[in-house]
Amino acid sequence: MKITVIGTGYVGLVSGTCLAEVGNDVLCLDVDCEKIRILNEGGIPIFEPGLQEMVSRNVAAGRLHFTSDTEIAVQHGSIQFIAVGTPPDEDGSADLQYVLAAARSIGRLMTDYKVVVDKSTVPVGTGAKVKDAVADELTKRAVDIPFSVVSNPEFLKEGAAVEDFMRPDRIVVGVEDEQSVVIMRALYAPFQRNHERLIVSDIKSAELTKYAANAMLATRISFMNELANLAEVLGADIEMVRQGIGSDPRIGYHYLYPGCGYGGSCFPKDVKALIKTAGDESRITKERGGSQRSQRGGPGAKGEPGGGPGPGGGAKEKHPPRGAPARPPPPPRGPDPSRCGGLLSNPIQTICVMRRVGN
Fold this sequence. Notes:
The protein has about 350 residues and is an alpha/beta fold. It has helices at about 10-20, 35-40, 50-60, 70-75, 95-110, 125-140, 160-165, 180-190, 205-235, 240-245, 265-285, and strands at about 1-5, 25-30, 65, 80, 115-120, 145-150, 170-175, 200. A 6-stranded parallel sheet has the order 3-2-1-4-5-6, sandwiched between helices. Helix 9 crosses helix 11 (about 265-285). The longest helix is centred in the middle third of the chain and has 32 residues, at about 205-235.
């Protein structure tokens, strides 16, 4: 297949090189001419184990090329990967200017059917914005050229990115038409010969999957640090606690080590972006007069002893007769936020660890 990768940063260069490794004709585009110069001279602008050798091998084989010419890049690939940066904006949201600029370039220069793939980490709803950006440019040109938009988030670990791409544990693709499903299956067939790893969903679900994965990992790290603080106060050994809870297959041992916390180029900005997304959606829901569903479990939940209708549930709650005084609201369940270590201020960190012993 002929593939264009827009952006030669960490995700773009690794993705383009690995796609070339399995026989595709890949052209990587970057507006940074210095990066392109380094790549065309045989170097790479980042360090990742095994990447330099793979780049050199595929350049020599004629499967991997680099350019700063946008028109050549758009004309080259029937699949256009957008792998540009999404830095955090001032309010914590992801800055999509580079993603949308790439989409507009595709719409402005394309002459035949394209599959536009969001590889960048983007908030839910970006697929629709990319689609609108491409369609808007086609409208300006007064042409009707078909295209598809796909969300294909990356799950690469720094230091193991080449291995992660070549031997993925899952490949998530969010699509809206059958033609793009067929193309993406064919593209990723060499990476899943042993068993099916492709997870096909709608675009919004694929976009949220990436943020949810990073937020979950960040939460595990933060939670273990909170437990370590509590263990120190109580005189417990957090390593023994880690072994005890990690042996539960529902929890597992990964990302259960207390330490200095999480950082890097992804976790902090993705957590902030998810919080911003959740806050925006909550505000919109309230403005529309809606209410958020409660998902608290425990006794009283549907299907549990003492709960509502369903297996094991009780009868429906009887309303007081008309004219009777209103029943006072039940006290809130769960720990008092004022007695917590501050985790409830972060919407994704849902577990509150009591700081004060004995209360």
